[in-house]
Amino acid sequence: MSELHVVLHPRFPPAVDTALRSMPGVVLHCPADDAGVVRALDAGAQVLATFTWRPEFLRPSLRWIAGTGAGTEQYPLAQFRERGIVLTTAAGVHAECVAEHAFALMLALTRRIGEAVRHMTARRWQALPGEQLAGKKLAIVGLGRIGEQVARRAQPWGLEIMGVKRDPKRYDGCVRDVRGEDQLDAACEWADILLLAAPARPDRSSLLGAGQLERLGRGWLVNVGRGSLVDEPALVRALESGRLRGAGLDVTAVEPLPPESPLWGMPNVVITAHNAGDSPGFGPRWGAIFARNRAAFTGDGEWENLATGRAAA
């Protein structure tokens, strides 16, 4: 097997570097910054492993982007198609992990764990009666692999579940009540907890605005999808006014979340740094997909999680 030069962007999920180093024939380049990524590609590397995209990464040698994230909204897909650049994603690699993280955020909100941690840092002993998940109404927006895993975990906990999906007719899972996006307002009115597990819209427009947050009322919002799905100023207003009980956010409109954002100081908000999918198991699972796609790159097999193109090695 001939050598394959792979550039790993300096921001990568756990153990992706270990997975790549363990593969025979892979020459791994680990630059310290974006400029180093460009230099490595200009030196002839054909493969870039990344979930971060910069326009300057579009170099003549680039033939395959092995995405370490599930989304594709950050990439110039039309340019990739024009140049025959393959883009593969990590879709499905972290579905179970993200689903567990979504549950952690739901529990942190309903059991008021975020508030308790703030009291802990202030050395303040104060009982904070929370609410139980059993019996709550959970609306899951986005019934892909992550949303389905959340639903499967929610059923034994005794939650009522509604799903919202772009094309309900294509759904084949465990949720019985699945509606189209035109029923989002109704889902917000029905739900105690609204959980976003959907990808970004192609134009990065928000799905959840002031009207939907008003309908959610004294409920909770959890977002493990994309920050662009939520009108963040409207979310801040709903939280500040008390109309919305709380929000658990693994993603935000701008990442990293700017220090001046009012979300940081809200006791009814729990924020994690877009790390819902990170775990020690990520690297081996991603590496297995990479290995199969490496064979496809050399013409020996089919692509997995293919988003664009079919490059010739």
Description of the structure:
With 313 residues, the protein is α/β, with parallel strands linked by helices. It folds into 2 domains: 4-93 and 279-308, Rossmann fold (3-Layer(aba) Sandwich), CATH 3.40.50.720; 95-271, Rossmann fold. It has 10 helices and 13 strands. The chain has helices at residues 16-21, 34-42, 77-83, 95-110, 113-121, 145-154, 184-190, 210-216, 232-241, 282-297; strands spanning 4-8, 26-29, 47-50, 64-67, 86-88, 137-141, 160-164, 178-179, 193-196, 220-223, 246-249, 269-271, 306-308. The chain has a 7-stranded parallel sheet with strand order 8-7-6-9-10-11-12, with helices on both faces. Helix 4 (95-110) crosses helix 6 and helix 7 runs parallel beside helix 8. The longest helix has 16 residues, at 95-110. The protein is globular. The model has no long low-confidence stretch (mean pLDDT 96). This is D-2-hydroxyacid dehydrogenase. Keywords: Oxidoreductase. Residues 103-276 form the D-isomer specific 2-hydroxyacid dehydrogenase NAD-binding domain. Pfam families: 2-Hacid_dh_C. One of its GO terms (molecular function) is glyoxylate reductase (NADPH) activity.
